[in-house]
Amino acid sequence: MTDFWPAHGSKTMPWKSSGRPPREDRDFTEVVVSLPPQISDLWYSPSRETIVALEEAAVGVASLDVTASSRMAAISGFLLRSEAVSSSKIEHVNANREDYARAMVGLKASANARSMVAAADAVQAMINAAGHTGEILLKDLLAAHHTLMKDDPVDGPHAGKVRDVQNWIGGSDYSPRGAIHVPPPPELVPDLMADLMVFCNRKDIPIMAQAAIAHAQFESIHPFTDGNGRIGRALIGAISRRRGLTKNTVTPIASAMVANVDMYFSLVNNYRTGDVDPFVLYLAQSALHASDAARESVSALDALPAQWVEMAKPRKGSADEKIIPWLLERPVFEAHSAAYAAGVAEKSVYGALERLTEAGVISLVGTSQRHRAWAATEVLDEVDRLNKRLAENAPAAAK
Predict the structure, then answer these.
(1) 3-state secondary structure (DSSP) of residue 272
(2) Pair (81, 173) in one structural domain
């Protein structure tokens, strides 16, 4: 083991652009690729400031997980949506509330909205797998990537597969000319990923430090043709679950990252020079900040059922009354689900849904007669309020 973190190496390789690129790309004949080091047995020594931040982050994340246990299904669902929505926003994948709500119940929606739902499913799958097996396994990352990318019109054929082509970040669409980062060539990716999986499954590193380094190393390898950012950020939550730091929830760290994406990308890039401690510190601070802000959201969500009762004034024992507390768990739903929750026939639930809509508790998001859906928009809007709090109150080190 060693107590320093090596910088990435590099290698110059020939390059030939395909298709019909501009002259500048036709003249681009060599590319310098990055060669990440093997890290499976490296030792990381955090600075004193980072040690404190790591301890505070672990306490904050664990505390949020305990806070969520009283309404586990509702709160874990909210935090999962927050993480998936924010992680998608980092990749410039966004959709409005109604569009996203329609995608959540499988109604016609934009490609971006469907991608955000797929991101939530991918995050959940990776975290569940880590909790179930107690390991971070490549097959689980591949399965999550397949979930995320299978419906993508361009990269769908590559879903769930380690890339067999050279990729790059930034620069030209036709070549790595001017790229911010050119990951290792595809023939090196399998060994680098095997090495990363060994690192992810160690137990002798502080949990959030392990998650930070694993994420930065994953982004350096960039093992997929697309979707690397979202799967790489899901790896943070998966390591927290594998190590037992969380049992019920995912910490919405991506929501904190959205507050300053430039800072996040800059520190990931600096990791490649061997500057590992600043990114670990950043992730620890982001985790603590996200946990604190999310607890405010938990309190806000806990207060909603009483507010809805006051707004709707449902008759005791009515379908309206039975649906209200269920809305935290299922903020977007169709009539048959509401009927099941209320214990009534589907044809009998529409009256309750109309009354709750008129009271402002829920809103119609799928308006065709055959494909109607409703949403408790206050639950969905809390994701945006969480992101706003994180942006307004970001710690100094993350600004």
Answers:
(1) coil
(2) yes
CA separation for the pair 165, 204 (Å, rounded): 35
Residues 104, 15 within the same domain = yes
Q: Can you list the pairs that 305-314 forms with residues at least 24 positions away whose Cβ atoms lie under 8 Å? A: 308/356, 308/359, 308/361, 308/376, 311/359, 311/360, 311/361, 312/355, 312/356, 312/359, 312/361, 313/359, 314/355
pLDDT below 70 — which residues of the chain? 1-3, 70, 367, 369, 393-399
Q: Is residue 234 part of a domain?
A: yes
**For residues 224 and 138, is the Cβ–Cβ distance under 8 A?**
no
Statement to judge: residues 30 and 73 lie in one domain: yes
> For 148-193, how does the pLDDT look when each residue is reduced to its tens digit (9 = 90+)?
999 999 999 999 999 999 999 998 989 999 999 999 999 999 999 9
- Over residues 51-78, the pLDDT tens digits come to 999 999 999 999 999 988 767 778 899 9
Say which amino acid occupies 315. R
**CA atoms of 259 and 161, how far apart (whole Å):** 31
Name the phi and psi angles at 108, rounded to 5.
Answer: -60, 125
Whether residue 172 is found in the same domain as residue 248: yes
User: First vs last Cα of the chain: how many Å apart?
Assistant: 34
**CA 50, 52, 53, 55: dihedral to nearest 10 degrees?**
120
Angstrom distance (rounded) from CA 78 to CA 314: 25
Q: Could you tell me the pTM of the whole model?
A: 0.94
Torsion of CA 259, 263, 269, 270, to 10 degrees: -140
What pLDDT, on the 0 to 100 scale, is given for residue 74? Answer: 87
Domain of residue 187, residue span: 9-296
Please give the Cα distance from 257 to 236 (Å, whole number). 13
Please check whether residues 279 and 355 belong to one and the same domain: no
Q: How many domains does the chain have?
A: 2
